[in-house]
Amino acid sequence: MAARLILSVIPGGLRILIHSWRAMRWGKRQANKSVKIFEKTLQEQDLSEEVIKELSAVYQANADFLSIRGLSQLAFQAVRSRPRRK
């Protein structure tokens, strides 16, 4: 009985995993496209390359949340920075 329950849950979990992964990939692609548009807009305003690189790096940081690696690193940092109970 328990084995049937486990086997019935696996396809649903895999489906959710695949849909989540595809959504994150799509979101990251869209974020990367918007970073390029942001850089072009800043270049049209005649800003220096140094300023453009700094601003686009900050803008790009939001796209890092759209990857499993970025999310796991953020989670590990949050766990490590949490004060320990005494």
Task: Explain what this protein looks like in three dimensions.
The chain has 86 residues and is mainly α. The chain is 81% helix and 0% strand.
List the helices and strands and how they pair.
Blueprint: H1 2-44, H2 49-61, H3 68-81
Question: What descriptive keywords fit this protein?
Answer:
single chain, 86 residues, mainly alpha, 81% helix, elongated
Q: Which value, in Å, is the CA radius of gyration?
A: 20 Å
| Helical content class | over 70%
Along the chain, the helix and strand elements come as HHH
Shape: elongated
Please outline the major beta sheet.
Answer: none
β-sheet strand percentage:
under 5%
Oligomer: single chain
N- and C-termini, Cα separation:
44 Å
Q: Show unreliable segments.
A: none
Class of secondary structure makeup: mainly alpha
Overall pLDDT: 79
Helix run count:
3
Q: What is the number of beta strands? A: 0
Offer a concise description of the structure.
This protein is an all-alpha fold. The protein has three helices and no strands.
